[in-house]
Task: inverse folding
């Protein structure tokens, strides 16, 4: 039984007792100022003896006193007032105790909720939690790696990228630059820089020392590249209607050519892998006539040590045709000016937006026709600037552009 129900039982018993005692008194013995308490609300404020002789008060007028609040135009006798006082005191003490217990329960619950802190269940929640508390990226990494398993440890870059992507909510270029600068990101174009060993560096240094004062007036530089013209057009947006004139499959073209200060050799276009037999056929059809026409007094033919170039059959062909092969150092695209030609050719083809393979071939041939001796000489002059820089950097890679 709760405290409230026990209080109601006590109150009902006192009310019954008072009613019996009141019925035993005759009508003559009842005082004139006594009212019928049969249906009296025991929750009304109690009255003491000093309040019996008070003058009637206007309804809804409150008298402030320690034990009196009268809102009716009536008075009661002393005996009833005493019982009312006892009942009200018990009711007030019980309700006050209940209120105190409720307040204590609420305080206890609040303290438990405050002490019971929810732990994050994932790495990202841990990052959010420490970041919201003002921790630096290094502190976040250290704190998380202490509690994580060895295979779940995170790096500085992982936290940096996560916070960057989360806070980069705006898509404007200005805010993007702001957040890149704030989190230490710098825009750079990745260069195709080959990995060089000590053997490669030494070979590059020897080649540059042999040509440091050379003007490359009698030199022929050959090269090969791969062209993928429809790579971007195959990546279409979802729901976008495909262009019927665009090819459904990726097409790859291989280009082979040579340049010198006397101009460019004929261009060879093929769509399959370059074999030794195809290579020798290309030399016979394109290079040999070009050398006989432009360099009858002597030349130097620059090509690397590719297996097709160094094969026994290839060496016999070069010796029989009188081609003076000068071996270029391996992994040295920066020492071959024809690489600049391939870069410019691909950019020109992309600007023309070809839709068919025939249009791509036409664009390639049109650009190759623009390779005059003057334009080829501009590309070769850049090699004269690269050779001293390679020597200064002890054989390291240097950009031709």
Result:
């Amino acid at each position: 039984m709760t405290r409230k129900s026990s209080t109601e039982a006590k109150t009902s018993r006192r009310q019954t007792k008072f009613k019996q005692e009141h019925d035993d008194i005759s009508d003559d013995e009842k005082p004139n100022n006594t009212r019928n308490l049969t249906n009296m609300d025991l929750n009304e404020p109690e009255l003491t003896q000093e309040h019996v002789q008070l003058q009637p008060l206007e309804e809804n007028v409150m008298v402030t006193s320690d034990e009196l609040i009268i809102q009716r135009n009536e008075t009661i006798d002393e005996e009833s007032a005493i019982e009312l006082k006892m009942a009200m005191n018990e009711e007030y003490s019980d309700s006050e105790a209940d209120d105190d217990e409720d307040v204590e329960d609420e305080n206890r619950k609040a303290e438990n909720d405050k002490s019971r802190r929810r732990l994050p269940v994932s790495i990202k929640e841990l990052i959010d939690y420490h970041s919201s508390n003002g921790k630096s990226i290094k502190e976040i990494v250290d704190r998380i790696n202490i509690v994580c398993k060895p295979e779940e440890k995170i790096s500085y870059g992982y936290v940096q990228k996560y916070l960057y992507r989360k806070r980069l909510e705006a898509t404007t270029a200005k805010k993007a630059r702001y957040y890149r600068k704030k989190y230490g990101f710098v825009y750079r174009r990745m260069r195709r820089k080959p990995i060089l060993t000590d053997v490669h560096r030494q070979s590059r240094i020897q080649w540059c020392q042999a040509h440091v004062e050379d003007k490359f007036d009698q030199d022929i530089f050959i090269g090969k590249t791969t062209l993928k013209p429809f790579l971007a057009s195959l990546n279409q947006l979802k729901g976008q209607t495909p262009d019927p004139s665009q090819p459904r499959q990726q097409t790859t073209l291989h280009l082979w050519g040579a340049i010198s200060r006397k101009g460019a050799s004929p261009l060879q276009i093929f769509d399959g892998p370059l074999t030794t037999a195809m290579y020798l056929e290309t030399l016979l059809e394109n290079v040999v006539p070009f050398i006989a026409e432009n360099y009858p007094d002597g030349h130097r033919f620059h090509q690397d040590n590719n297996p097709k170039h160094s094969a026994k059959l290839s060496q016999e062909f070069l010796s029989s045709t009188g081609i003076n092969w000068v071996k270029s150092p391996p992994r040295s695209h920066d020492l071959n000016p024809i690489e600049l030609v391939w870069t410019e050719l691909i950019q020109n083809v992309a600007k023309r937006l070809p839709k068919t393979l025939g249009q791509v071939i036409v664009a390639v041939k049109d650009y190759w026709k623009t390779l005059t001796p003057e334009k080829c000489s501009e590309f070769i002059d850049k090699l004269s600037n690269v050779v001293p820089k390679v020597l200064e950097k002890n054989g390291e890679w240097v950009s031709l552009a």
Summary: Residues 26-45, 47-75, 114-120 have pLDDT under 50 and may be disordered. The first helix runs from residue 3 to 24.
